[in-house]
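The records we work with from here on pair a chain with its fold. A complete example follows; check for yourself that the lines match position by position.
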Amino acid sequence: MKPEDKNRQQQQQQQKQQQQQKQQQTMKQPGQQQNWQDKQGQPGKQGGGFKGKN
């Protein structure tokens, strides 16, 4: 493997991790959690999927 290839792979992995962290942070924000609970109340929306997991 060339050094450039290794660097590219590492950068891609870091970017993925950063994106995941951002998503987790936004989930923790109070405004969004309320939103998410509203959806749970309506089985037709995403809430239906979450209910099964909880």
Remarks:
- Residues 29 and 53 are 21 Å apart (CA to CA).
